[in-house]
Specification:
The complex is a heterodimer.
Chain A: H1 2-5, H2 14-35, E1 40-46, E2 51-56, H3 59-89, H4 97-116, H5 120-138, H6 145-176, H7 181-187, H8 192-208, H9 217-220, H10 226-232, H11 237-247, H12 249-252, H13 256-279, H14 283-304, H15 306-338, H16 354-367, H17 374-389, H18 391-416, H19 433-447, H20 450-464, H21 480-497, H22 499-516, H23 518-541, H24 544-565, H25 582-597, H26 604-624, H27 628-651, H28 654-661, H29 667-693, H30 701-711, H31 717-725, H32 727-753
Antiparallel strand pairs in A: 1-2
Chain B: H1 4-27, H2 35-53, H3 55-61, H4 67-87, E1 104-106, E2 109-111, H5 113-137
Antiparallel strand pairs in B: 1-2
Helix pairs in contact in B: 1-2, 2-3, 2-5, 4-5
Classes of the chains: A mainly alpha, B mainly alpha.
């Protein structure tokens, strides 16, 4: 721990090294695959449902995959120095680091799977995997209630919306008979199915990208350790949403209304995110609002559509991810060095951290779209697409870019210029050089934009559905993009200079959002659900008698109603018993007698034994009805339970058993219980009698099973069903048994500990 | 403390119970019973030992601490039968031999993969039952009073 404190840093742990290596290998593989022109795999998954594990490294997958893996290398390297410090601050053992790196690697793998998936079901699976990994990562500080709630919020918002997406996918499948994207694009036509399914999938994507009105989870997710934010909330998790919109863009483009909706959501997110970023004080919070706003740009461009929109969206994602992860890492490094977490607590860090200031300066300039950074081109393409779409969107684009300029200037100058504040601690090099590397990359991209443009072009080709041109260059003339950029800088500077005047109205806006915004709706509905669940829980398990009655009473009422109102008149019949039924009737009568007898005894042991008498009589009835397998299992279960009862009673102190046995029931309750028993007995008798009177069906599933059992090399059809025909069910059931075993062991161990 | 007679009966019954369980398991495909029933029969034999001898003596005589391992082995076996056909390019849980093909015979036994799956069920049920029985029999604070 002392080594960490002295600033040189501990060695890179094994788990961190493994994560870095994995990210390096993934980046190299993806880069090589992209250079070689793609390629993919296509394995059958569940052939009877026509599900395939189809993955292909196309342009879109290559770009998002490279972002996730490449930025992953730098973020993991940063984390290898950051996380030990983070754990040391909280007096946690360093081995917990492995958990974070493991979840980061899981996230990387699911992200690569997500962006290369060509089957919507496979895509959905990886989509949820990223949500699970992000839950683990945001909630890394398990002892912190705030972190746990934030992790839950991120999980709920992204997975509940993912269910909508699954509904959309299934609608497409029902309509077109496939979930393979290339096939879908070929056959899908404009219509209500595509509109509704597209809208459902788009909602999931917008929630993942933290767009208005689902944006509230992202600032909360800043409870995560900084490397997690730098990774998930710049290059990966949040990018997955706009990735999905890009992936299914050919479907969305079939319905202009959907694109218009995206446009509205995008512009709203741009405005809300930008305004809140201008007012935010916390460093990471400001960056989170900025992310909302920046992905708002991308969604706007996807909504504008067309060649220019697709190109602008893809290039924007690329440029933004590089710069934003550098800025998140800057925030973490500054907090580690000075102890300040908000703009009001830091300042003047440039002299003490010159390399960090330079790297993050380049990144901030890129977000603000200054020339000589890759960011300039992102806004150039953005302005071009917006201007093509029409004057209103052009004006909104300039306003959004001005906001961006203003809050970025506020962020960087607030952290690095002005009077020095806070303590100064030396930083490990690994907390600085990833920022410097990304800053350098951003500047290189501003000079030699070719390779970046090529990557974005290949991605945009997939989004647009046909080949397109994407070239970026500086033009020293009075074209409209340049004029818009100059206007944005000028307005942005004015906003920055006059930010003190804006403070009060922005605070008001942020306060209104807290009081009546979507986050409030989230917490209100969550609290309501909790209350509902508690109430149901109370009704069901407060006492055993109530829970039994809660099943039996409605159950028998429903059956009665079903019997009385079944439309097929004459279907219910009660035949007179025949001679051959005599043994069965005896068995059932014994069963009934044992049940009645079970109500009499006061002692626990007698009660247990008469209950198992009911079970044994029932088992006899099964065996008489030609169900020897069921009878065998019934006998065995009854035996083991009878013995378990006896064994457990022998562990309970005698005095307790006696005291329990002497408790008397109030008369009213005994009357009520008797009435319930009578009603259910009458109804059950009627139903069972009716069922026995029916002739056994001869052409159902049972006959088919008997025929097929021969093919499956078995003559005991029950076993064949369990192990072969319904083997998947059995597999799930034995998994449940294993989970139950672990749960029982843990519960009982907890009891011993008190 | 239980009587001498019940202890003798319990001890004498253990081996036959396990043999019956093995028979139910192996014959499962041709006759009544399956891995689940076999697992319960075997667990019954062990439960009887618990009742007659108490937990301490059973733990000394039988490897009951391994029960969770046995259960998880069974689960792993089930998943293996589920997953292996995938590697071979077939659908999950596809059994061998295929319909119409003749299985390999060892005496009157037929070797089919469905039985392997059933053995997985057997091990899981046996292990889980014993683990739960053992957890119930473990000493509790309440026992001190008696």
């Amino acid at each position: 721990m002392d080594r960490v404190r002295d600033g040189r840093g501990g060695r890179v742990s094994g788990s961190a090294a493994a994560a870095i290596t994995a990210a390096l290998v993934a980046s190299a593989g993806l880069a090589a695959g992209w250079a070689a022109g793609g390629g993919g795999v296509d394995l059958p998954w569940a052939p009877t449902w026509d599900l395939r594990l189809a993955f292909e490294l196309d342009g879109l997958g290559a770009m998002y995959g490279l972002l996730a893996a490449g930025i992953g290398v730098l973020v993991f390297a940063y984390a290898s120095a950051y996380v030990p410090r983070h754990l040391a601050h909280q007096d946690r053992p360093r081995r917990e680091e492995a958990r974070l790196h493991g979840a980061m690697a899981l996230f990387l793998v699911s992200m690569v799977g997500l962006v290369t998936a060509q089957d919507l079901i496979a895509l959905f699976v990886f989509w949820d995997l990223t949500a699970v990994a992000s839950w683990l990562l945001i909630g890394f500080d398990r002892a912190d209630r705030d972190a746990r709630l934030s992790a839950l919020m991120a999980l709920l918002v992204t997975t509940v919306s993912a269910v909508l997406m699954l509904v959309g996918i299934l609608m497409l499948r029902v309509e077109y008979g496939t979930t393979q994207l290339p096939e879908l694009f070929a056959v899908a036509e404009q219509g209500s199915t595509v509109t509704v399914a597209g809208a459902l999938i788009a909602i999931a994507a917008l929630a993942k990208s933290a767009q208005v009105p689902f944006h509230f989870w992202l600032p909360r997710a800043m409870a995560a350790p900084t490397p997690v934010s730098a990774y998930l909330h710049s290059a990966a998790m949040v990018a997955a949403g706009v990735f999905l919109l890009s992936r299914i863009h050919p479907l969305l483009a079939l319905e202009p209304g959907l694109l218009d909706a995206l446009l509205v959501v995008g512009v709203a997110s741009m405005a809300v995110g930008g305004a809140l970023a201008l007012a935010a004080d916390g460093l990471k919070r400001l960056l989170a609002y900025s992310t909302i706003s920046q992905y708002g740009y991308v969604v706007t461009m996807l909504g504008a559509g067309g060649e220019a929109g697709a190109a602008a969206a893809c290039f924007y994602v690329l440029a933004h991810a590089l710069a934003k992860s550098a800025l998140f890492m800057t925030a973490g490094a500054v907090t580690e060095a000075t102890g300040g977490k908000a703009l009001s607590e830091v300042g003047g860090a440039a002299r003490r951290l010159p390399l960090l200031a330079a790297g993050s300066g380049a990144a901030a300039a890129a977000i603000a779209a200054l020339p000589l950074t890759i960011g300039f081109f992102k806004d150039e393409l953005f302005f071009k697409a917006a201007a093509e779409h029409g004057l209103p969107l052009g004006a909104l684009a300039v306003a959004g870019a001005a906001l961006t300029f203003a809050y970025m200037a506020r962020f960087w100058t607030g952290v690095f210029l002005g009077a020095p504040r806070g303590t100064t601690e030396p930083l490990e090099r690994r907390l600085v050089w990833p920022v410097a590397a990304l800053g350098a990359l951003v500047v290189v991209g501003g000079v030699v934009a070719g390779p970046f443009a090529a990557l974005a072009r290949d991605a945009a080709t997939v989004t647009h559905g046909e080949p397109l041109e994407l070239t970026v260059a500086y033009h020293l003339d009075a074209r409209v993009e340049n004029l818009m950029a100059i206007a944005a800088y000028a307005c942005g500077f004015l906003l920055f200079a006059g930010r003190r005047l804006l403070d009060a109205p922005l605070r008001l806006f942020a306060g209104a959002g807290d009081r009546a915004g979507p986050e409030r709706a989230y917490s209100v509905s969550l609290r309501g659900l909790n209350r509902l669940s508690n109430r149901l829980h109370d009704i069901e398990v407060r006492d055993l008698r109530a829970s039994v009655a809660a099943v039996i009473v409605p159950g028998s009422l429903l059956v009665t109603i079903g019997v009385l109102f079944t439309p097929t008149a004459g279907a219910y019949r009660v035949d007179a018993p025949q001679g051959a039924d005599a043994p069965l009737i005896v068995a059932v009568a014994v069963c009934a007698l044992a049940a009645v007898a079970a109500t009499v005894p006061r002692g626990h042991l007698a009660l247990a034994l008469s209950l198992s008498g009911v079970g044994f009589a029932l088992a006899t009835a099964y065996s008489l009805m030609g169900a020897p397998d069921v009878a065998l299992v019934a006998v065995l279960i009854e035996t083991i339970f009878a013995l378990l009862f006896v064994g457990v009673y022998s562990l309970v102190p005698r005095a307790v058993l006696r005291r329990e046995a002497e408790l008397h029931e109030p008369r009213s309750r005994r009357t009520r219980d008797g009435a319930i028993a009578l009603v259910s007995a009458v109804v059950t008798t009627l139903v069972v009698w009716g069922a026995f009177s029916r002739p056994v069906p001869r052409d159902g599933m049972a006959e088919r099973h008997l025929e097929l059992a021969e093919d499956a090399h078995g003559s005991d059809v029950v076993t064949v069903i369990l192990a072969d025909f319904r083997g998947l069910d059995t597999l799930v059931e034995i998994t449940v048994v294993a989970v139950a075993m672990i749960a029982v062991a843990m519960l009982l161990r907890g009891r011993v500990r008190g | 403390m239980t009587s001498i007679l019940s202890r003798m009966v319990a001890r004498a019954l253990l081996a036959p119970t396990l043999i019956v369980a093995a028979a139910i398991l192996v014959k499962g495909y041709a006759d009544v019973g399956d891995g689940f029933a076999a697992g319960i029969v075997a667990a019954l034999g062990v439960l009887l030992q618990y009742l007659a001898f108490g937990r301490d003596e059973v733990m000394a005589a039988l490897p009951v601490q391994r029960a969770p391992v046995v259960a998880l082995t069974g689960l792993a076996l089930g998943f293996a039968v589920f997953a292996v056909p995938l590697v071979a390019g077939a659908t999950p849980l596809e059994h061998w031999p295929a319909p119409g093909e003749e299985p390999i015979h060892v005496g009157s036994l037929e070797l089919i993969t469905a039985v392997v799956f059933d053995i997985g069920v057997f091990l899981l049920v046996l292990g889980a039952s014993i683990a739960i029985i053992d957890a119930l029999a473990a000493p509790t604070d309440g026992e001190v009073e008696s």
